[in-house]
Write a structure and sequence with these properties.
Largest sheet: 8 strands, mixed
CATH architecture of the largest domain: 3-Layer(aba) Sandwich
CATH superfamily of the largest domain: Zn peptidases
Structural class: alpha+beta
Number of domains: 2
Strand content: 25-35%
Shape: globular
Number of strands: 17
Length: about 400
């Protein structure tokens, strides 16, 4: 994908404030993105998950045809307003996983759902912990210095860490919420490329809410029967480099996570497309890993019978965990660009996604058959027997 076009699309999305149950700014930006592309249709379920569908086929075929749906989530760990404790102090509920020790005395920016998406946020600081355990407090006491600004905090307020929202340094993107707004950006760029090229395929992007608090949005989508059982699903995540992936070495074809392994045929199809891309496109790279330092929504889909694979952007400073302080997360720009290319080529594979799966199986079968052709005569010529020693 063209780098400038990706950055133009990604920066507004990845700079938005978000948290579990507070994905509204991202949600609206996604709907605006779709409204400017007439070939995209948007639907939503009762919990606010979004499904963007592109259909560029000249002749619409029967509804039983397999097609690709990518998935990503619109939230990032943060804090949500719980109650006012005094004129300038508030209880904020913990939303998602992050380092409790680094959160102590950390600066936050408090946003409100009724303000504009470009709001700077009210500055505050974590002043103490409330309930839960030392390792995982249930809530935090947040202090706001300015009385006039403190008066604006209330229901509908949520907080993120006071970190730079976007900073491109060399080939690395340092952002407050790569996980998973980077995945959202890749998914939108994937559809944008199909739309721009008027690709004669059908493909979708499912964007979920509240992933960071136990996959609530994806479970809700399954519960609402919102998902097409005929589709092939590819989850897009940002996954910690602690699992062994290397930033800049290409997007990861994710074999599984901490809880589950994913559909082997889809994984093989992804690998086959990636292998072909390495021979056709200079600079294309990929990795194949079991990213088991965390879990992702592909596990929910697999557990409910959907054919699912996964890809991941290797992530530094997972959930803003820096060496000594909360820090922006990091992804490599080239990994994101290559991931878009991988998804576009998978969706446009001759004969469809299913053909890439068959191609990978056929290649494996041929490899075994070629080897056995030479091995078979020796096996038949010298079998073990129960004769005397």
């Amino acid at each position: 994908m063209d780098e400038a076009r990706f950055l133009h699309l990604a920066r507004p999305i990845m700079s938005l404030p978000t948290a579990p149950y507070h994905e509204h700014f991202v949600w609206r930006a996604v709907r605006d993105f779709a409204s400017r592309r007439p070939r995209l249709e948007v639907s939503e379920d009762r919990t606010g998950n979004l499904l963007l569908c592109y259909d560029g086929r000249r002749k619409k075929k029967n509804d039983r045809e397999e097609y690709l749906i990518t998935t990503a989530h619109m939230d990032h760990p943060g804090l949500a307003f719980k109650e006012r404790l005094s004129d300038r102090e508030f209880a904020f509920e913990r939303m998602g996983g992050f380092s409790s020790s680094l959160a102590r005395r950390a600066g936050v920016r408090i946003y409100h759902l009724e303000d504009s998406p470009g709001q700077r946020g009210i500055k505050g600081v974590v002043a103490g912990e409330l309930g839960g355990t030392e390792e995982r407090p249930a809530a935090y006491r947040v202090h706001v210095e300015s009385p006039s600004q403190a008066a604006r905090v209330g229901p509908g307020s949520f907080a993120m860490w006071d970190l730079r929202t976007w900073n491109l340094r060399g080939r690395r993107l340092h952002c407050r919420a790569c996980d998973d707004l980077g995945g959202v950006a890749v998914g939108l760029a994937f559809l944008d490329e199909l739309n721009r090229r008027r690709a004669p395929v059908k493909a979708g992007l499912l964007l979920t809410r509240a992933e960071e608090v136990g996959f609530a949005g994806m479970v809700g989508a399954v519960d609402a029967h919102f998902l097409d059982s005929k589709a092939l699903y590819i989850n897009i995540e940002c996954s910690s480099i602690l699992a062994g992936a290397v930033m800049g070495a290409g997007p990861v074809i994710r074999v599984g996570d901490r809880m589950w392994t994913f559909n082997p045929h889809l994984t093989a199809g992804l690998v086959e497309v990636a292998r072909q891309l390495t021979t056709k496109e200079a600079g294309f790279r990929y990795q194949r890993k079991l990213m088991d330092s965390g879990s992702c929504e592909a596990t929910v889909l697999m557990g409910n019978g959907f054919r699912t694979g996964a890809v991941a952007l290797p992530l530094g400073n997972y959930h803003n965990t820096g060496e000594k302080r909360l820090s922006p997360e990091i992804i490599h720009l080239d990994d994101a660009l290559n991931m878009v290319d991988l998804l576009v080529h998978l969706s446009r594979y001759p004969g469809g996604c299913a053909a890439s799966l068959r191609a990978s199986t056929e290649a494996l079968d041929k490899s075994f058959a070629d080897r056995f052709k030479h091995q078979k005569p020796r096996l038949l010529a010298n079998p073990p027997t129960m004769g005397s020693a």
